[in-house]
Amino acid sequence: MYPWIVFIHSVSAMVSIGPFFVLIPMLRKLQTAEGELKSSYLDSFHFVVRLSKHAGHVLVFSGLLLMWLGRWPWTTPYIAGTFVVLFASLFFMARAFSPTIRKLRQPENDHPALLRKLRRSLYLYLFVLFVMLWLMMMKPLLW
């Protein structure tokens, strides 16, 4: 059972990180997109954020199962560090993407500034995801 949960945990990590890379070239196209095309790009952004959120739920649940079955204590440095980064990223993700995407759908807002904010949020969130991935893969002794 444990190897299957490790597999599910790994796949959910890939699904929660991978789709964000599709958004990088889409950001460039969003700068000049109009009408239906712009709406389609924003729908894609929204879908990736939701997919990542739900894959993150599977990731956390499977991680907790692995901790329980493997008898890993909460005080293990890389586990505690990952949860600290995870909770910080939850607040970040809730405020970074969906409100900006909603504002981009409205014609009266400053689109170049919102696209810069969306780009910055995307790169920052990818960095946070990679920090969590690094903690889980490298298992550093933080204390």
From TrEMBL:
TM regions (residue ranges): 6-27, 47-69, 75-97, 122-142
Keyword Membrane (UniProt): yes
Record flagged with keyword Transmembrane: yes
Keywords: Membrane, Transmembrane, Transmembrane helix
Domain of life: Bacteria
Name under which the protein is recorded: DUF2269 family protein
